[in-house]
Amino acid sequence: MNPLDWNLIGSPAIAVFAVLGGAALLWLGVGPRRYLLRSTLPALLGGAIGGLALWFVAEKAMNLWGAPQPVWFYVLGGLGITAVLLAARRVRVSPRWWKRSLTVIAPMVVLAAAAGGVNAYFGSFPTLRAVAGGQDIPVLGAIATPTDTGPVTTPADWTAPADMPAEGKVYQATIPGTVSGVKTRPAYVYLPPAYLASTPANVPVLVLIHGDPGGPGDWITAGRLPAVMDAYASAHEGLAPIVVMPDSTAGTGPTPSLCLDSNYGRAGTYLAVDVPTWVKDTLKAGTHAATDWAVGGFSYGGTCALTLATGHPASYPTFLDISGEDKPTIGAGQDALIRNYFSGDAAAFAAQNPLDIIRSTPLPGTAGTITVGADDSFYRPQGEEVAAALKKAGVEVRLQTVPGGHTWEAWKAGLQDNVDWLMTRYGVLPG
Question: What's the N-to-C CA distance of the chain in angstroms?
Fold first, then answer.
């Protein structure tokens, strides 16, 4: 196996991180009694204070994660600080060059092991290849497109041609903000095998939104979307949705767009107007009916999916909200959101807030699935609240609990477990 494909999130990897990090920390911390009293104990105290400071800054001062994280995150951070403090002391007193070299390397090993443990929890970088940036993804060029603009292809009217590839392909693409006026990073597009055949099938479209912080490539690296969709297509004569993964920041820079039209740009218009228009014009897909379209996302992207489905039901009558929040949110709080995004106009925010919209606007053709992680104590109650509110408003909604916390274990399952449901909503599979 190529070393770049080594699994970074399985049990063997976690054990390796623990052994290497522990050995490096012992090398730095063990010594004569005088060393323990003058170096090791002060460094441990400094690490404890540093870990507490990391917790305060990340969760209280800046709310970097949007939700409480496990205590061991900050324990690992404290141990990393301890290793750096010990190395700074030990490198000055080590008489031999090889000891000094090991002393310089050891804190790097501890920090790398700590980062590996956190990554194994989230599942953000499943392999070394993902850490290195993955494979080069080609830019979308001229491709054969369906000539039939009728209903999407179903298994009953589709026979896979002999030249159909066994796997789909992922491309980079630039989706311009023609109407919205926003500028974004490149998007990614997954094209299923049936679409890539010499006589392409007319397949539906799924727009998937990434989390924040994050980017559209997260669905490819951490979510392993090509493998998920290829597996589905393999079992369904090559049929699967085209998956468009746009940049949801929509030109707002470090400020999350929240997929809204606000003082920070017209992200809602970009995702609900510009993206579908580009898909129809470039890929000749999603041209028959609104039922050809669905929107989904995880965490921040799940909130976006709900926001777009309720605010733009003609564009997205089907949505998949994976571990989303109960409303568009920023770390500084709702008052700051209304002040900064809408110049203090609470009514302007309410006009785009999903749970406000459903109180006054019927959504008879809209249906959604909300998935929550069984171990996600922060976001799961919000998803349950949203599902209950939608049901009360008469919106067709399903609530699912999947294994995992607020991590890729739950986010990947939220998509993978619902492709059949999406294909039924599209009309590809019988209801």
Answer: 43
Whole-angstrom distance, CA of residue 215 vs CA of residue 245: 9
Q: How many CA atoms lie within 13 A of 165 on its CB side?
A: 10
Q: What is the pTM assigned to this prediction?
A: 0.91
In angstroms, the CA 428 to CA 319 distance is: 16
Cβ burial of 22 (10 Å; 0-12, 13-18, 19+) is middle
- Tell me which residue of 354, 341, 424, 340 sits closest to 383, measured CA to CA: 354
- How buried is residue 167: exposed, middle or buried, by Cβ count under 10 Å (0-12/13-18/19+)? middle
What number does CATH give the domain 135-426? 3.40.50.1820
Tens of pLDDT, residue by residue over 282-316, are: 999 999 899 999 999 999 999 999 999 999 999 99
Domain ranges of the chain: 3-128, 135-426
Query: What does DSSP say about strands 187-191 and 242-245: parallel, antiparallel, or unpaired?
Result: antiparallel
User: In terms of C-beta density within 10 A (0-12 exposed, 13-18 middle, 19 or more buried), how is residue 328 classed?
Assistant: buried
Question: Has residue 40 got a pLDDT over 60?
Answer: yes
Is the bond preceding 213 in cis, omega lying within 30 degrees of 0? yes
Paired with 172 in beta bridges are: 139, 188
Question: What are the φ and ψ backbone dihedral angles of 213, each rounded to 5 degrees?
Answer: -75, 155
Provide the token pair at 364: 């008879």
**CA–CA gap between residue 40 and residue 34 (Å, rounded):** 9
